[in-house]
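Message: I would value a second opinion on how I read folds in token form. Give me a protein, with the fold worked out from its sequence. Write it directly below this note and I will take it from there.
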Amino acid sequence: MPYARNLDARIVQLAAPTSGVIHATTLREHNICRRSVLDRVADGRMTRALDRTYYVGPAAHQPTDEMRCFAAVLHAGPGARISHGTALVRAGVWDADRHDGTIHVTSRSARRQLPDEGFRFHQVRKACSGLPALAVAGAPTLAVMHALLSAASSHTPHQLASMIDRATYRRLLAVDDLRAAVVCTPRPGVEHLREALRLVDIGSVGTRSRAEDQLLAALQRAGIAPDLVNVRGALGLPSDEPDFVWIDARLNVECDGGHHLMRRQREDDARRDAAAIRLGWQVDRYSARRVWGHVDEVVCAIAKTLATRRAWSSKSHRVTVS
């Protein structure tokens, strides 16, 4: 029994630098035999994460995202990097609730994609150990520019514009460097990045939430996509950043998250809407909850308002001309 307790403590100590994750290679290097590992897996002291990779300690049965990242990197082998959307979440330029939770890793070694494990392994021809990495809690993570290039095909231009805006604000990205990389990097998704950079150039910061993502996608499917998305000053109010704007109809649609229910925010919204109305804009607000539950109804309502506003604008123009 004392030997078992000492061995447990030793394994925990070996796994500590990698947030409680250990690979079979490390166990073998320290003369910890396979039988000892299997015994601990059987009684729950260790939990299999991936092939020959284990979670150790109290959190073994409910691994954190940090543990899952280390497990994926150790499994992928030397030179592996956390990549794609996972790297962007870790860098703080993408929202965790807008990421599907899959841990993406890029390395030179091919890895079998196992179902329902929440991991995705990507293979590159050259060693990714030469690519710049961020120091995010110890796990090697692709720098933001390379993560954007790898994730571009699985995100919309407006989502990418949001990431670019946050990354430049945090000084994790130089937009000119990204432009140069887009020009000389023929890879999937590069057109999305080009469009994202165009949005950044006109002042858009992309979509800010999952509800905005959903509403924008539904508007695009209906053929009534807004002219501007989160462009500061679009209504003529310098400090304001309206969500969706149709210039010809002078319509602004806001997609309000839960914080808009707070008293101070409601008062600020009322003052802002009154100022926009004085400038000739119509402002319609829809809660994120309504967008999530009834997006088709919201799109129909916006379409009717657009038709009414455009008809009114056309009539006013004819009266003015005559």
Remarks:
- Residues 87 and 298 are 34 Å apart (CA to CA).
- Confidence is low (pLDDT under 50) at residues 318-322.
- The radius of gyration is 25 Å.
